[in-house]
Structures are given as C-alpha cells and as structure tokens.
C-alpha cells in the first residue's frame, strides 16, 4: 500500500506533473519572443498589405500584461482651449493665406468620418479644422499624430485639441484601438494617408493603414456607416509664407460599408486604390493655384 501526501492526492497534482519542466530563463525568453511577435504581427497587418489582417489582431483577446504593455492614451477636446484655437484660426489663417475652399457641401454633418487629406506642410493640421471643423460642420476633429510630434508644449496642446500619438513605423495596439473607438463614437478622425509631408505636390501611393482601420471599425460595430472624405491641399510655395495661395478641395465621401465583399486584404486594397483615385481626381480638376 502506497501512502500519498496531501499534495500528491490533489486533483491538480496530475496536471502539474504531466507538464514538462521549463527553466525560468527559457520561459522569460519565450514570453519576450511572443510579445515581440504579437507587436510585429499587428504592425505588419496595418502597414504591410501582404501580411495578416488587422481585423484578426485587433479583435484578439489573448493579450495580457505579460505580453502587451499598458499604454494610456491621454487625448481629449478641451472645453476652453478648443474654442480659443478655432477663433484664432478663423482670425489669423485668412490673413496669412489667400485661400480658396471648394466642396464643403460634401462634408457629413454626423456619423463616423475619416478625413483623408494630402500632406504638404505643417500648416495642414490648422487648415483642415478651419475648412471642415467646428465653424463649418459644428464638429471637432480628432487627429492621429506621429508620436515624435507629441513632445513638450506642442504635445500638450495637441493632446488637448483632440490629437493622439501613433508610431507610423511600429504602431502600438493601444493607439490603433483608440482610433477604432473614436470612430465607434461617431467622431471625425483625421489621418494623412500618404504618411509624411511631401512638398513637391505629387501624390504618393497611399499607406493601407487607413483603409484597414476603417474596415476594422466598420466590422466591429454593424451599421456604423463610416465615410472616408478625400481632401486635396495645394500651396503655391513648397514652404508656405505670408500671402501664400492655397487650394483646399473636398471630394465626395467613400462609403466603407461598400468594401466588405471580399477578404480584408482585398477590401483594404480596393478602398485604398479608390481613395487614391479620388484624391488624384479632385487634384487634377484644373484649379489654378495662381489665382
């Protein structure tokens, strides 16, 4: 007769003894490798169209504190700073620039909206709210901003004017989820689909991240009805100065719900291609910036 200790007779004992022993150092290495792999997988899903889809990664619930660092997104629309910024913009921008606005009738007054402007100067982030924001649609804008711009006083201001950081090369899961939440709350989100500032006025191939984020948000909340609005900005100077002429042309919205017939990769590619075509079309209408 074999006498068993209380632990050996416990039901969990067999389960523990059946699992292979893994040294602590090897376990930590495996955890680190899994964390890096998950981060890389999600990044590639939104940046590289040939890798796994963003939908599967953003919907995953298998993240834990051990495999994903907790990042707090500190962004809001300040109740006192935002009105001041809009008033200053309305007073100063028409004085600094000679502007021509076209297509404001295409702006949705409600619902989830992604504004997709071309990116030609740092002034873009002031001109877009002037052209489509509070004084035009009655709505405030949220901005997806490159993380290296979110430092010091500038970062403090951006966070209180609706901006939140994202690393365009390695976007954190928290930033992407926050972007989805902004759309689920039926707000206006500004994303520059070219990714960087290009001062030669030539439209670059668009990054697939905008389309993938839009499709993920649309699939996460049926009937959300996200619209993507192309906006073409054109200056008559590569580095705008006082008196610079600028055209801001707003195109007709693209309905994200119309891009859900194929795979996520195929839908994102079609939406990206159609958005690029729309930006080229409104940019090639022959408007003369030298008016």
From TrEMBL:
InterPro entries: GPAT/DAPAT, Plipid/glycerol_acylTrfase. GO terms for biological process: phospholipid biosynthetic process. Keywords: Acyltransferase, Transferase. The keyword Kinase does not apply. Residues 113-236 form the Phospholipid/glycerol acyltransferase domain. The keyword Secreted does not apply. One of its GO terms (molecular function) is glycerol-3-phosphate O-acyltransferase activity. This is 1-acyl-sn-glycerol-3-phosphate acyltransferase.
């Amino acid at each position: 007769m074999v006498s068993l200790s209380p632990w050996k007779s416990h039901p969990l004992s067999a389960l523990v003894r059946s699992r292979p022993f893994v040294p602590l150092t090897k376990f930590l290495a495996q955890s680190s490798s899994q964390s890096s792999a998950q981060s890389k997988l999600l990044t590639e899903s939104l940046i590289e169209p040939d890798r796994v889809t963003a939908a599967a990664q953003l919907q995953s619930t298998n993240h834990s504190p051990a495999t994903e660092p907790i990042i707090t997104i500190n962004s809001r629309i300040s109740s006192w700073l935002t009105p001041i910024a809009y008033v200053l913009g309305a007073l100063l921008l028409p004085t600094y620039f000679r502007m021509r606005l076209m297509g404001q009738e295409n702006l949705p007054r409600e619902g989830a909206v992604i504004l997709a402007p071309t990116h030609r100067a740092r002034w873009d982030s002031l001109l877009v709210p002037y052209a489509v924001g509070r004084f035009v649609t009655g709505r405030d804008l949220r901005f997806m901003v490159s993380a290296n711009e979110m430092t010091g006083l500038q970062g403090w201001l951006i966070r209180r004017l609706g901006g939140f950081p994202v690393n365009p090369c390695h976007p954190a899961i928290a930033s992407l989820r926050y972007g989805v939440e902004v759309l689920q709350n039926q707000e206006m989100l500004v994303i520059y689909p070219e990714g960087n500032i290009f001062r030669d006025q030539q439209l670059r191939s668009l990054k697939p991240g905008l389309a993938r984020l839009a499709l993920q948000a649309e699939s996460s909340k049926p009937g959300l009805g996200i619209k993507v609005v192309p906006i073409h900005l054109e200056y008559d100077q590569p580095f705008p100065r006082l008196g610079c002429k600028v055209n801001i042309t707003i195109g007709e919205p693209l309905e994200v719900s119309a891009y859900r017939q194929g795979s996520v990769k195929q839908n994102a590619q079609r939406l990206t291609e159609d958005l690029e075509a729309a930006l080229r079309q409104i940019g090639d209408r022959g408007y003369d910036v030298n008016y």
